[in-house]
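> call design_seq(struct)
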Protein backbone atom coordinates (compact mmCIF):
# COMPACT_ATOMS: atom_id res chain seq x y z
CA UNK A 1 0.00 0.00 0.00
CA UNK A 2 1.50 3.32 -1.09
CA UNK A 3 0.66 6.97 -0.65
CA UNK A 4 1.83 10.55 -0.93
CA UNK A 5 1.25 14.00 0.63
CA UNK A 6 -0.01 17.22 -0.97
CA UNK A 7 0.53 20.72 0.44
CA UNK A 8 -2.87 22.45 0.70
CA UNK A 9 -1.72 25.70 2.27
CA UNK A 10 -0.01 26.90 5.45
CA UNK A 11 0.50 23.88 7.76
CA UNK A 12 -2.28 22.01 5.94
CA UNK A 13 -1.60 18.74 4.12
CA UNK A 14 -3.66 16.18 2.27
CA UNK A 15 -2.72 12.55 2.79
CA UNK A 16 -3.50 10.24 -0.13
CA UNK A 17 -3.27 6.45 0.16
CA UNK A 18 -3.63 4.15 -2.85
CA UNK A 19 -5.72 1.17 -1.80
CA UNK A 20 -5.86 -1.03 -4.91
CA UNK A 21 -8.58 -1.00 -7.54
CA UNK A 22 -12.34 -1.43 -7.67
CA UNK A 23 -13.89 -4.34 -9.66
CA UNK A 24 -14.39 -2.00 -12.63
CA UNK A 25 -10.71 -1.03 -12.66
CA UNK A 26 -10.90 2.35 -10.92
CA UNK A 27 -8.21 3.25 -8.40
CA UNK A 28 -9.34 3.25 -4.77
CA UNK A 29 -7.99 6.13 -2.71
CA UNK A 30 -8.34 7.10 0.93
CA UNK A 31 -7.69 10.75 1.72
CA UNK A 32 -7.37 12.76 4.88
CA UNK A 33 -6.61 16.43 5.47
CA UNK A 34 -4.38 17.11 8.45
CA UNK A 35 -2.36 19.84 10.17
CA UNK A 36 1.44 19.43 10.05
CA UNK A 37 4.38 21.82 10.47
CA UNK A 38 6.28 20.51 7.47
CA UNK A 39 6.41 17.77 4.83
CA UNK A 40 8.43 15.45 7.06
CA UNK A 41 5.78 15.52 9.76
CA UNK A 42 3.06 15.05 7.14
CA UNK A 43 4.84 11.96 5.79
CA UNK A 44 5.07 10.53 9.31
CA UNK A 45 1.31 10.96 9.65
CA UNK A 46 0.90 9.35 6.24
CA UNK A 47 2.71 6.29 7.57
CA UNK A 48 0.32 6.18 10.53
CA UNK A 49 -2.64 6.49 8.19
CA UNK A 50 -1.44 3.57 6.05
CA UNK A 51 -1.04 1.47 9.20
CA UNK A 52 -4.61 2.36 10.30
CA UNK A 53 -6.02 1.41 6.91
CA UNK A 54 -4.16 -1.90 6.88
CA UNK A 55 -5.53 -2.72 10.35
CA UNK A 56 -9.05 -1.67 9.35
CA UNK A 57 -9.12 1.20 11.86
CA UNK A 58 -9.22 4.16 9.46
CA UNK A 59 -12.11 6.58 9.96
CA UNK A 60 -13.05 8.40 6.76
CA UNK A 61 -14.52 11.75 7.92
CA UNK A 62 -16.18 12.26 4.51
CA UNK A 63 -18.33 9.18 5.17
CA UNK A 64 -18.59 9.37 8.95
CA UNK A 65 -21.77 10.87 10.40
CA UNK A 66 -21.78 12.82 13.64
CA UNK A 67 -23.89 10.06 15.24
CA UNK A 68 -21.32 7.40 14.26
CA UNK A 69 -18.44 9.42 15.69
CA UNK A 70 -20.30 10.41 18.87
CA UNK A 71 -21.15 6.78 19.60
CA UNK A 72 -17.50 5.85 19.13
CA UNK A 73 -16.52 8.73 21.41
CA UNK A 74 -18.91 7.41 24.05
CA UNK A 75 -17.47 3.89 23.95
CA UNK A 76 -13.78 4.74 23.49
CA UNK A 77 -13.53 7.80 25.72
CA UNK A 78 -16.57 8.68 27.85
CA UNK A 79 -17.31 5.21 29.23
CA UNK A 80 -13.61 4.73 30.04
CA UNK A 81 -12.86 8.10 31.64
CA UNK A 82 -16.09 9.60 32.94
CA UNK A 83 -18.46 8.77 35.79
CA UNK A 84 -21.37 6.45 34.92
CA UNK A 85 -23.94 9.12 35.80
CA UNK A 86 -22.21 11.61 33.49
CA UNK A 87 -22.19 9.08 30.63
CA UNK A 88 -25.88 8.32 31.26
CA UNK A 89 -26.72 12.03 31.10
CA UNK A 90 -24.67 12.48 27.92
CA UNK A 91 -26.52 9.62 26.24
CA UNK A 92 -29.81 11.26 27.21
CA UNK A 93 -28.79 14.58 25.65
CA UNK A 94 -27.52 12.91 22.48
CA UNK A 95 -30.49 10.61 21.92
CA UNK A 96 -33.20 13.09 22.86
CA UNK A 97 -32.12 16.22 20.99
CA UNK A 98 -28.65 16.23 19.44
CA UNK A 99 -28.89 13.13 17.21
CA UNK A 100 -32.33 14.08 15.83
CA UNK A 101 -30.98 17.53 14.97
CA UNK A 102 -27.56 16.73 13.50
CA UNK A 103 -26.79 13.04 13.88
CA UNK A 104 -27.20 12.49 10.13
CA UNK A 105 -24.69 15.20 9.16
CA UNK A 106 -21.14 14.26 8.17
CA UNK A 107 -18.86 15.10 11.07
CA UNK A 108 -16.48 17.10 8.88
CA UNK A 109 -19.32 19.17 7.42
CA UNK A 110 -20.81 20.54 10.63
CA UNK A 111 -20.25 24.28 10.86
CA UNK A 112 -20.77 26.88 13.62
CA UNK A 113 -24.05 27.89 11.94
CA UNK A 114 -25.42 24.40 12.57
CA UNK A 115 -24.74 24.80 16.29
CA UNK A 116 -26.18 28.31 16.42
CA UNK A 117 -29.39 27.09 14.78
CA UNK A 118 -29.53 24.16 17.21
CA UNK A 119 -29.13 26.41 20.27
CA UNK A 120 -31.78 28.75 18.89
CA UNK A 121 -34.23 25.86 18.61
CA UNK A 122 -33.48 24.79 22.17
CA UNK A 123 -34.68 28.20 23.37
CA UNK A 124 -38.15 27.78 21.91
CA UNK A 125 -41.28 27.15 23.95
CA UNK A 126 -42.56 23.59 24.49
CA UNK A 127 -39.14 22.04 23.79
CA UNK A 128 -39.08 20.28 27.15
CA UNK A 129 -39.43 16.50 27.21
CA UNK A 130 -40.45 16.16 30.85
CA UNK A 131 -44.01 17.34 30.31
CA UNK A 132 -43.44 20.67 32.06
CA UNK A 133 -44.43 23.97 30.50
CA UNK A 134 -41.94 26.64 29.44
CA UNK A 135 -38.45 26.74 27.99
CA UNK A 136 -35.30 24.85 28.80
CA UNK A 137 -33.09 26.56 31.35
CA UNK A 138 -30.00 28.31 30.04
CA UNK A 139 -27.93 25.88 32.12
CA UNK A 140 -29.44 22.89 30.29
CA UNK A 141 -28.61 24.52 26.94
CA UNK A 142 -25.07 25.09 28.19
CA UNK A 143 -24.81 21.37 29.02
CA UNK A 144 -25.59 20.60 25.36
CA UNK A 145 -22.87 23.01 24.26
CA UNK A 146 -20.26 21.54 26.62
CA UNK A 147 -21.03 18.03 25.42
CA UNK A 148 -20.75 19.04 21.76
CA UNK A 149 -17.50 20.88 22.51
CA UNK A 150 -16.03 17.79 24.17
CA UNK A 151 -16.97 15.57 21.22
CA UNK A 152 -15.61 17.96 18.60
CA UNK A 153 -12.41 18.53 20.60
CA UNK A 154 -11.82 14.78 20.56
CA UNK A 155 -12.50 14.71 16.83
CA UNK A 156 -9.74 17.31 16.38
CA UNK A 157 -7.37 15.49 18.73
CA UNK A 158 -7.97 12.20 16.91
CA UNK A 159 -7.38 13.99 13.58
CA UNK A 160 -10.85 13.25 12.25
CA UNK A 161 -11.51 16.96 11.61
CA UNK A 162 -9.19 19.96 11.43
CA UNK A 163 -11.10 22.42 13.61
CA UNK A 164 -13.94 22.30 16.11
CA UNK A 165 -17.04 24.26 15.06
CA UNK A 166 -17.89 24.71 18.75
CA UNK A 167 -14.80 26.89 19.27
CA UNK A 168 -16.32 29.60 17.06
CA UNK A 169 -19.64 29.63 18.92
CA UNK A 170 -20.05 31.53 22.18
CA UNK A 171 -21.52 29.27 24.87
CA UNK A 172 -25.04 30.21 26.00
CA UNK A 173 -25.01 32.59 28.95
CA UNK A 174 -26.35 31.05 32.12
CA UNK A 175 -28.82 33.06 34.16
CA UNK A 176 -27.63 32.79 37.74
CA UNK A 177 -30.30 31.78 40.22
CA UNK A 178 -30.01 32.35 43.94
CA UNK A 179 -29.58 29.21 46.00
CA UNK A 180 -32.82 28.23 47.74
CA UNK A 181 -32.41 26.84 51.25
CA UNK A 182 -33.73 27.06 54.80
CA UNK A 183 -32.86 29.97 57.04
CA UNK A 184 -31.89 29.30 60.65
CA UNK A 185 -35.47 29.55 61.93
CA UNK A 186 -36.78 27.14 59.29
CA UNK A 187 -33.94 24.69 59.89
CA UNK A 188 -34.72 24.73 63.63
CA UNK A 189 -38.40 24.03 62.90
CA UNK A 190 -37.43 21.14 60.64
CA UNK A 191 -35.21 19.56 63.30
CA UNK A 192 -37.96 19.91 65.89
CA UNK A 193 -40.45 18.17 63.59
CA UNK A 194 -37.89 15.43 62.98
CA UNK A 195 -38.10 14.24 66.61
CA UNK A 196 -41.23 12.19 65.89
CA UNK A 197 -39.91 10.62 62.68
CA UNK A 198 -38.17 7.23 62.14
CA UNK A 199 -34.64 7.27 63.54
CA UNK A 200 -33.11 6.25 60.20
CA UNK A 201 -34.43 9.35 58.44
CA UNK A 202 -33.87 11.65 61.39
CA UNK A 203 -30.21 10.57 61.41
CA UNK A 204 -29.80 10.96 57.65
CA UNK A 205 -31.38 14.42 57.48
CA UNK A 206 -29.57 15.72 60.56
CA UNK A 207 -26.23 14.37 59.36
CA UNK A 208 -26.72 16.02 55.96
CA UNK A 209 -27.59 19.34 57.56
CA UNK A 210 -24.50 19.50 59.79
CA UNK A 211 -22.02 18.15 57.23
CA UNK A 212 -23.34 19.39 53.87
CA UNK A 213 -22.89 15.90 52.39
CA UNK A 214 -24.03 15.18 48.86
CA UNK A 215 -26.85 12.63 48.62
CA UNK A 216 -24.56 9.96 47.14
CA UNK A 217 -21.94 10.53 49.86
CA UNK A 218 -24.55 10.08 52.59
CA UNK A 219 -25.83 6.86 51.02
CA UNK A 220 -22.25 5.58 50.62
CA UNK A 221 -21.41 5.82 54.33
CA UNK A 222 -20.51 2.61 56.16
CA UNK A 223 -20.04 2.16 59.90
CA UNK A 224 -16.29 1.88 59.45
CA UNK A 225 -16.39 5.52 58.24
CA UNK A 226 -17.69 6.71 61.63
CA UNK A 227 -14.99 7.41 64.22
CA UNK A 228 -16.86 7.60 67.51
CA UNK A 229 -13.69 8.39 69.49
CA UNK A 230 -12.64 11.35 67.34
CA UNK A 231 -16.20 12.44 66.42
CA UNK A 232 -15.47 12.41 62.72
CA UNK A 233 -16.75 10.77 59.54
CA UNK A 234 -14.64 9.84 56.52
CA UNK A 235 -15.98 10.33 53.00
CA UNK A 236 -14.34 7.78 50.71
CA UNK A 237 -17.14 6.62 48.38
CA UNK A 238 -20.57 7.49 47.03
CA UNK A 239 -23.66 5.49 46.12
CA UNK A 240 -25.58 6.08 42.89
CA UNK A 241 -28.45 4.55 40.96
CA UNK A 242 -28.86 4.38 37.18
CA UNK A 243 -31.61 2.65 35.17
CA UNK A 244 -30.29 -0.62 33.81
CA UNK A 245 -27.35 -0.58 36.20
CA UNK A 246 -29.07 -0.41 39.56
CA UNK A 247 -27.41 0.88 42.74
CA UNK A 248 -23.62 0.92 42.62
CA UNK A 249 -20.66 2.35 44.52
CA UNK A 250 -18.26 4.86 42.99
CA UNK A 251 -15.45 7.21 43.88
CA UNK A 252 -16.47 10.63 45.30
CA UNK A 253 -16.99 13.47 42.83
CA UNK A 254 -13.36 14.67 42.96
CA UNK A 255 -10.19 14.22 44.99
CA UNK A 256 -11.16 17.04 47.36
CA UNK A 257 -14.40 15.18 48.05
CA UNK A 258 -12.39 12.50 49.85
CA UNK A 259 -12.30 14.12 53.25
CA UNK A 260 -12.69 13.81 57.00
CA UNK A 261 -15.43 15.91 58.63
CA UNK A 262 -15.80 16.75 62.31
CA UNK A 263 -19.24 16.03 63.75
CA UNK A 264 -21.00 17.76 66.68
CA UNK A 265 -21.15 15.62 69.83
CA UNK A 266 -24.96 15.76 69.82
CA UNK A 267 -25.02 14.24 66.34
CA UNK A 268 -22.52 11.57 67.38
CA UNK A 269 -24.94 10.65 70.19
CA UNK A 270 -27.68 10.37 67.58
CA UNK A 271 -25.46 8.10 65.50
CA UNK A 272 -24.80 5.86 68.52
CA UNK A 273 -28.54 5.58 69.14
CA UNK A 274 -29.16 4.77 65.49
CA UNK A 275 -26.41 2.17 65.46
CA UNK A 276 -28.14 0.28 68.29
CA UNK A 277 -31.37 0.26 66.25
CA UNK A 278 -29.47 -0.76 63.08
CA UNK A 279 -27.80 -3.73 64.87
CA UNK A 280 -31.16 -4.79 66.26
CA UNK A 281 -32.71 -4.78 62.81
CA UNK A 282 -29.81 -6.81 61.46
CA UNK A 283 -30.24 -9.47 64.18
CA UNK A 284 -33.95 -9.78 63.41
CA UNK A 285 -33.25 -10.45 59.71
CA UNK A 286 -30.65 -13.11 60.49
CA UNK A 287 -29.39 -15.10 57.49
CA UNK A 288 -31.38 -12.94 55.06
CA UNK A 289 -29.03 -10.01 55.69
CA UNK A 290 -27.08 -9.18 52.53
CA UNK A 291 -23.82 -8.46 54.33
CA UNK A 292 -23.59 -4.73 53.66
CA UNK A 293 -22.30 -2.39 56.36
CA UNK A 294 -24.08 0.69 55.02
CA UNK A 295 -25.64 3.07 57.51
CA UNK A 296 -28.65 3.41 55.27
CA UNK A 297 -29.83 0.07 53.97
CA UNK A 298 -33.04 -1.74 53.05
CA UNK A 299 -34.70 -4.16 55.48
CA UNK A 300 -32.46 -7.02 54.28
CA UNK A 301 -29.21 -5.04 54.28
CA UNK A 302 -28.95 -4.02 50.64
CA UNK A 303 -27.76 -0.46 49.91
CA UNK A 304 -30.77 1.85 49.98
CA UNK A 305 -31.77 3.56 46.73
CA UNK A 306 -30.27 7.09 46.93
CA UNK A 307 -33.62 8.59 45.91
CA UNK A 308 -35.49 6.93 48.81
CA UNK A 309 -34.48 9.57 51.33
CA UNK A 310 -35.24 12.30 48.78
CA UNK A 311 -38.83 11.09 48.33
CA UNK A 312 -39.23 10.70 52.09
CA UNK A 313 -37.98 14.26 52.70
CA UNK A 314 -40.53 15.68 50.23
CA UNK A 315 -43.41 13.92 52.02
CA UNK A 316 -42.03 14.96 55.41
CA UNK A 317 -42.04 18.65 54.46
CA UNK A 318 -45.63 18.45 53.23
CA UNK A 319 -46.78 16.62 56.38
CA UNK A 320 -45.30 19.33 58.64
CA UNK A 321 -46.17 22.36 56.45
CA UNK A 322 -42.52 23.22 55.99
CA UNK A 323 -41.32 25.30 53.02
CA UNK A 324 -40.55 23.01 50.08
CA UNK A 325 -36.85 22.66 49.30
CA UNK A 326 -34.94 19.86 47.60
CA UNK A 327 -32.89 17.35 49.53
CA UNK A 328 -29.74 18.85 47.97
CA UNK A 329 -30.80 22.21 49.44
CA UNK A 330 -29.90 20.82 52.88
CA UNK A 331 -26.31 21.01 51.66
CA UNK A 332 -26.93 24.64 50.67
CA UNK A 333 -28.50 25.30 54.06
CA UNK A 334 -25.42 23.94 55.80
CA UNK A 335 -23.02 26.03 53.70
CA UNK A 336 -25.07 29.23 54.00
CA UNK A 337 -25.28 28.89 57.79
CA UNK A 338 -21.51 28.37 58.05
CA UNK A 339 -20.88 31.49 55.96
CA UNK A 340 -23.29 33.50 58.09
CA UNK A 341 -21.04 32.66 61.06
CA UNK A 342 -18.17 34.39 59.26
CA UNK A 343 -16.04 31.24 59.07
CA UNK A 344 -13.11 31.11 56.58
CA UNK A 345 -14.25 30.33 53.03
CA UNK A 346 -11.39 27.86 52.60
CA UNK A 347 -12.55 25.82 55.61
CA UNK A 348 -16.14 25.78 54.36
CA UNK A 349 -15.01 24.75 50.87
CA UNK A 350 -12.95 21.87 52.31
CA UNK A 351 -15.85 20.70 54.46
CA UNK A 352 -18.15 20.65 51.41
CA UNK A 353 -15.58 18.80 49.30
CA UNK A 354 -15.47 21.36 46.49
CA UNK A 355 -12.68 20.95 43.95
CA UNK A 356 -11.63 24.57 44.45
CA UNK A 357 -12.58 27.54 46.60
CA UNK A 358 -13.93 29.52 43.64
CA UNK A 359 -16.78 27.00 43.28
CA UNK A 360 -17.86 27.72 46.86
CA UNK A 361 -17.68 31.48 46.33
CA UNK A 362 -19.65 31.26 43.07
CA UNK A 363 -22.48 29.13 44.49
CA UNK A 364 -22.83 30.92 47.81
CA UNK A 365 -22.12 34.48 46.77
CA UNK A 366 -25.40 35.63 48.35
CA UNK A 367 -24.25 34.40 51.75
CA UNK A 368 -20.89 36.11 51.34
CA UNK A 369 -22.72 39.41 50.75
CA UNK A 370 -24.54 38.97 54.05
CA UNK A 371 -21.23 38.40 55.83
CA UNK A 372 -19.80 41.46 54.10
CA UNK A 373 -22.72 43.57 55.34
CA UNK A 374 -22.03 42.43 58.91
CA UNK A 375 -18.39 43.43 58.48
CA UNK A 376 -19.49 46.89 57.33
CA UNK A 377 -21.71 47.22 60.42
CA UNK A 378 -18.80 46.34 62.68
CA UNK A 379 -16.66 49.05 61.04
CA UNK A 380 -19.56 51.45 61.44
CA UNK A 381 -19.60 50.72 65.15
CA UNK A 382 -15.85 51.15 65.36
CA UNK A 383 -15.97 54.53 63.60
CA UNK A 384 -18.93 55.69 65.67
CA UNK A 385 -17.06 54.75 68.81
CA UNK A 386 -14.10 56.82 67.70
CA UNK A 387 -16.31 59.85 67.11
CA UNK A 388 -17.78 59.51 70.57
Amino acid sequence: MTGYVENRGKNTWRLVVNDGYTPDGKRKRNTKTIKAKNKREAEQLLGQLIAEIEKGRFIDPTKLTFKDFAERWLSDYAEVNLAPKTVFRYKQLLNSRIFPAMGHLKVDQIRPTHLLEFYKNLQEEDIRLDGKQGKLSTRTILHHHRLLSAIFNSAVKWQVILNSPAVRVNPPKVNKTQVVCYNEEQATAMLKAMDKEPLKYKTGITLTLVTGLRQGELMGLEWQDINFEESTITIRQASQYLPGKGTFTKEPKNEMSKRIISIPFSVMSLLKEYRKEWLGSRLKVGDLWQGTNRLFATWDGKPMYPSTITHWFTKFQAAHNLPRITFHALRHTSASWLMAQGLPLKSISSRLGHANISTTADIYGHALKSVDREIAKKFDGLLTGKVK
